[in-house]
Task: inverse folding
């Protein structure tokens, strides 16, 4: 598994990195930490330089596959991109630390493509929906990127993961990411199916049966329930108070109807806890 | 040995009910009779004699295929499932007829919780459940049963509930922890745990009866709170065993809110005796 | 055994086998795949494989027991563990028991091919 952890120098990024580190150490994933700095800075941002050693250390330790702490400085690898030299860290898995400058959304997409990442982590502030003046940046990333992403709010993901199911596009990757999340967090998994005016749609029901069978056969206890489409935003908001909320938003997803890009951004902003967008 | 009638369609609630009931049957030596009803809807049966028989046979064949598909997909390992019965007619009427004639100990159905507790209460207050003669198990989720919570309250004397419990779980194969929860409604900020004495002699007597039936080390608790608070507290139990609730009581609301499978007994004597006193919870 | 590197794959999810086996064969490996851990165990006791790829959580013998059995019969075999339910304990125990790599699902085909290539190179280095 390959993870991309997008950070800046703020506390919410430290919290996201902590959760990403726990996930990475348990799964022995290859990790790229991508630090974003102001678009027009020619030199490395001092606050980022202060934050990155601490963030790197979160991924290290006795049981870590990433070897020892190494920071022999950043090398400019191309215009606006610096990479930390971790030569000699002797890790069994990759831990790459990069700083990039430019159009942040474009950079994240490029890096995802380059690393072929399966899962993206980034933090969001609970009270201020922006990253250094870039309004709703984490929300925009989660709504745009093609892979699943975890928008971390707060220091823990809670003890429940409530996943709202769409009609058709439940990828194997998203099911496996949920497996790993509930295992690592020892969280309770709840699967919510959406009902329309005529009850549960046949395709949603079929998919829920498959998903439930998948988890039952693997010994993962998954609770199921139904929620009316119209009540979904209110339900999702309520669920976000006690745990992490997962939304399956595939290309053919029914949920995209309710969580259009703009509404998804608003929802993540309003959510009281972390949100996992599953694709 | 208990016998139960399990109603199956080819849908998610049935899938959950089948898996749960099969596991209970395997652990307690119970038998399952699968029933599916093909509802011809508002259309009248075409003609009489051979035409009508062929039409009915077509419906039965379609129903049988549906149930077989479900049984095959679920790959349930239960040696005590009898061949499915497929009937044509109204689901309520056919289920009630089969229950009356088959002398079953339990009726099992799947149910998925919705945003509104009214849906659950409507089901309980509907014709099918109001007229069943045996206890009913509503399976809302597929949960492994390592512990059972008996929801107690003065509305139903425990001696009326115990035989139903014993009949089904008396021969349970494996570790099974039992908790007796005496529930009282109260609008508290959070669930309040009270001393056992607050339940009068109810819990003492119930505990004695359970011990005499071979259930030692039963945990007894008295709680007071809203149905929402209590439902959250009860979420880790594999099954909730309760008397059939009266309409629009906090107990009914609590049972509607629960995500766990519920087994509801309908002790007729207790209902008629206490219902007039207005003390139901 | 021929000159080709021999690989045994054990995963009770047929989809993994279906994806992995033809891809590795195309790369010139000699691959045997099993979904049943008992059958796989019998096979490793008959023949030493260069590389074994095993899932951790399976019906019957679990991946950890399988890993121990492989290492006992053929200490030179490089073992790659894959898992859908990673915990610190499973990762730690796998390494204590000498696995070559640990891959948590989801992973891309390329990642396991890369892990196999690394294990193969490691083995060649050990054998001199």
Result:
């Amino acid at each position: 598994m390959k993870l991309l952890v997008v950070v800046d120098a703020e506390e919410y990024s430290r919290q996201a990195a902590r959760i990403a580190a726990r996930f990475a150490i348990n799964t022995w994933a290859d990790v790229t930490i991508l630090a974003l700095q102001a678009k027009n800075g020619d030199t490395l941002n001092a606050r980022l330089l202060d934050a990155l050693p601490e963030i790197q250390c979160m991924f290290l330790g006795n049981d870590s596959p990433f070897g020892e702490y190494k920071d022999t400085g950043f090398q400019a690898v191309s215009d606006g991109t610096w990479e930390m030299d971790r030569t000699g860290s002797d890790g069994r898995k990759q831990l790459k630390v990069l700083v990039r400058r430019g159009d942040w959304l474009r950079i994240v997409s490029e890096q995802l493509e380059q690393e072929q990442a399966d899962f993206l982590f980034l933090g969001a502030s609970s009270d201020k929906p922006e990253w250094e003046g870039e309004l709703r940046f984490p929300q925009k990333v989660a709504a745009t990127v093609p892979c699943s992403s975890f928008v971390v709010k707060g220091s823990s993901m809670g003890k429940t993961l409530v996943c709202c199911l769409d009609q058709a596009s439940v990828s194997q990757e998203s099911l496996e990411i949920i497996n790993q999340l509930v295992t690592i967090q020892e969280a309770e998994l709840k699967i919510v199916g959406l009902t329309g005016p005529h009850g549960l749609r046949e395709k949603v029901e079929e998919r829920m049966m498959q998903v439930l069978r998948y988890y039952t056969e693997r010994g993962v206890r998954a609770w199921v329930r139904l929620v009316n489409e119209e009540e979904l935003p209110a339900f999702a908001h309520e669920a976000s108070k006690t745990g992490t909320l997962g939304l399956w938003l595939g290309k053919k997803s029914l949920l995209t109807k309710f969580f259009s890009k703009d509404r998804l951004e608003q929802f993540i902003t309003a959510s009281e806890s972390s949100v996992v967008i599953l694709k | 040995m208990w016998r139960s009638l399990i109603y199956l369609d080819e849908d998610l609630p049935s899938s959950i009910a089948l898996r749960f009931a099969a596991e209970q049957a395997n652990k307690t030596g119970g038998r399952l009779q699968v029933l599916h009803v093909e509802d011809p809807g508002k259309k009248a049966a075409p003609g009489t004699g051979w035409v009508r028989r062929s039409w009915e046979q077509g419906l039965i064949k379609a129903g049988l295929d549906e149930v077989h598909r479900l049984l095959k997909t679920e790959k349930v390992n239960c040696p005590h499932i009898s061949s499915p019965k497929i009937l044509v007619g109204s689901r309520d009427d056919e289920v009630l007829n089969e229950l009356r004639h088959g002398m079953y100990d339990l009726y099992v159905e799947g149910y998925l919780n919705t945003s509104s507790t009214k849906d659950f209460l409507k089901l309980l207050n509907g014709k099918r459940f109001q007229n069943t003669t045996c206890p009913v198990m509503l399976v809302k989720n597929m949960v492994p049963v390592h512990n059972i919570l008996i929801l107690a309250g003065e509305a139903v004397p425990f001696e009326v509930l115990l035989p139903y419990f014993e009949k089904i779980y008396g021969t349970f194969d494996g570790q099974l922890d039992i908790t007796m929860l005496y529930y009282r409604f109260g609008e508290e900020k959070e669930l309040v745990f009270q001393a056992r004495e607050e339940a009068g002699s109810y819990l003492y007597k119930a505990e004695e009866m359970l011990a005499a039936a071979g259930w030692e080390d039963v945990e007894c608790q008295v709680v007071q709170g809203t149905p929402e608070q209590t439902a959250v507290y009860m979420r880790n139990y594999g099954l909730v065993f309760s008397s059939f609730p009266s309409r629009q009581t906090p107990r009914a609301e609590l049972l509607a809110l629960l995500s766990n499978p519920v087994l509801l007994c309908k002790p007729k004597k207790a209902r008629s005796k206490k219902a007039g006193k207005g003390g139901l919870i | 055994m021929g000159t080709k590197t021999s690989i045994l794959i054990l995963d009770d999810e047929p989809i993994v086998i279906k994806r992995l086996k033809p891809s590795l064969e195309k790369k010139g490996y000699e691959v045997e795949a099993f979904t049943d851990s008992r059958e796989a165990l019998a096979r490793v006791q008959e023949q030493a494989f260069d590389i074994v790829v095993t899932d951790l959580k399976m019906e019957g013998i679990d991946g950890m027991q399988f890993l121990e059995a492989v290492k006992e019969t053929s200490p030179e075999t490089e073992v790659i563990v894959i898992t859908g339910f990673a915990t610190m304990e499973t990762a730690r125990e796998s390494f204590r028991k000498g696995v070559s790599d640990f891959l948590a699902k989801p992973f891309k085909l390329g990642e396991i091919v890369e892990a196999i290539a690394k294990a193969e190179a490691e083995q060649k280095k050990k054998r001199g």
In short: The longest strand of chain B covers residues 177-185. Chains B and C do not touch (no CB pair under 8 Å).
